[in-house]
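job 3f2a | input accepted
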Amino acid sequence: MRAGSKVLIVALVILVAAVGAGVWLYHSLDSIVAGALNTYGPEIVGAKFRVASVKIAPASGAGEIHGLFIGNPEGFKTESALTAATVSIEIDPSTLTDDVVLIRSIAIAAPAVTYETGPGGSNFDALQRNVMRGVKEKLGDKGRGDAKTEGPGKKIIIEHLTIRDAKASVNSPLLAGKTLTVPLPDIELRNIGKDQHGIAPAAAGGVIVSALTQRVTAAATGAISNFAKSGVEAVGKGVSNVQGGVKKLFGK
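job 3f2a | predicted structure (252 res):
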């Protein structure tokens, strides 16, 4: 066989393999993303994490994630920390087989958030500790705080993440059995992992959970403080009314 023929055959084999990989990727994008989320999610938050389904257009990488559920760590009474019916997502499909996967946008609209306090802090404090522990276990000392890129496995970049119109149900012993519902400030994060040319999914999760924990904690503690203050004021008014009644009774 001539050398030229051998080169042609090798080229054809490579072409067929490339086409086959492209067809496989085209038809498997939904399952790839769903599998990645359901695999990495529980590892990142140290609690139950699942998505019901994923639907993404292979050509553009735009689509939706349905049935997002983030559970609470052990020791908390409420079942979930965050749920969302739909999450909009856009991935650069050409990067799925690269070392760094580019996620152009993630948008979570009107998620239901539950904030619960316990002896060791809130459920979001526990989630954040779990994430930081997971980062350290996966990346060692290189994964502390600033979420370095080193470590095995794929990396990701998230260009734009938004969480809008969220409301939190606040559960605390200080509320005397009541549950408060408070709106949360919108969250907008840009270029997660871009400066580092990609970071581990656990490190990216740490950035997101940290931002969410800050917003939820501020809103929830403010609501609990206002509730306690209103209770003290109500008691004060009650005492004042009793004193007034006593004075009237004795004609003073």
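job 3f2a | Residues 3-249 form one domain.
job 3f2a | closed
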